[in-house]
Amino acid sequence: MDTVNVIAVVGACARERARYAKQLAETSGHVPIASFLRPDATEVAQEVAARARWPCAGRGAVVDVPEQVSVTELIGALAGDPALPTVRLDAVICVVDATHLLTDLGSDDYVSQPNESGQTLMARALLTAAHLEFASHLVIVNWEPIATAELATLLALASHLSPRAVLRLHHGAPQAPAPTAAYTADQDRPGWVCLLNGEFEPHMTDLRVSAFRYENFRPFHPERLQLLLDERVELGDFGTLVRSAGFCRLATRPDIVAQWEQAGHMLSFTPLRRDDDNSEDAELLALGQDIAFIGLDLDHDGLTAALDDATLTDEELAAGPSAWARFPDPFPAWHLAQNPTDQ
User: Fold this and answer.
1) Does the N-terminal or the C-terminal CB of the chain have fewer CB atoms within 10 Å?
2) 163 and 229 share a domain?
3) 42 plus 179 within the same structural domain
4) What's the rounded Cα separation, in Å, for the pair 248 and 294?
5) Any idea what the Cα angle at residue 147 is, between residues 126 and 211, rounded to 5°?
């Protein structure tokens, strides 16, 4: 059976995404796939595989991926599922509308996202960030009315969020990307991952756009961290924080490493593992804080000092975990997947 070479088109703007996907299918000779009854990653992947028999075989497919579909789950379903041997994911193209990129990344609303238990709400800003970060190609549309200086800043920001993506301004008929190595389910494309891995090399730079890595072996005092986030970071005291992600620890939960994930006004902490997980596959994610920050006009030194102040002092550190457990903790309880009673 012939393999279907798939190009997935993602993006926050449904109209621009659909238009680009349609044009790309027409110019490349690929079959367009754009209608899904239940738009989740598994359903999209299964439908693409089903169409491998007809009419996509030997031609390829351009898939207009609905906004609510998790791009990471889609990549996993298309590139990492051995049950889909007839599908090869060649590219993930993110269509970026320059006129409202910053608005999308700063959005404070939610998108309903299907999952095994029904529906869940996902922050639109985090979905938008993921579209950019996991894309192989960023296509900027509606860039013509943007002033040159502003456009340069937007392009540099996109490049910082997704430093391994091919970045180009859209004009004329879209062309299918040149064949490269097929996507794999294990992705290290996001800028924050590159930054933590010491492999951060964005193609475009701008004086207003910057990124830095914050490390500190001491756990955060949860109350001081919340005050810092709500009363200073949120208000822009250190510039515009567009994206931050990495690993962190709270003193009140010292044996758990959590993922720190922020886009715009949305910040979440997801517990990943306890320190006593001694499985062979377990790896030490972080002893304390290891977080990447990307933004506009960032005050690196000021934010670093403020984050340091939100970690434990010498006296608090010496007091030990029994004292830490009595600290005020305003953050929601954590429940590890392997044990629902973990907090």
Assistant:
1) N
2) no
3) yes
4) 17
5) 40
> Left, alpha or beta for 200 (phi > 0: left; psi -120 to 50: alpha)?
beta
Q: In what order do the strands lie in the sheet with 256-263?
A: 209-216, 289-296, 240-248, 256-263, 266-274
170: pLDDT strictly greater than 70: yes
User: Within this chain, do residues 176 and 28 fall inside the same structural domain, yes or no?
Assistant: yes
Average pLDDT over residues 6-20: 93
What's the domain count of the chain? 2
The pLDDT confidence band at residue 268, using thresholds 50, 70 and 90, is very high
Convert the pLDDT of each residue in 238-263 to its tens digit: 999 999 999 999 999 999 999 999 99
Give the structural domain span for 119: 4-193
Tell which of 158, 193, 228 closes a domain.
193
Averaged pLDDT, 164-187: 84
Shared domain for 157 and 219, answered yes or no, is no
- Residue 302 covered by a domain: yes
- Write the DSSP symbol of residue 54: T
Tokens for 292, please give them.
């990447």
- How far CA 285 is from CA of 204, 212, 280, 291, in Å, comes to 29, 18, 14, 11
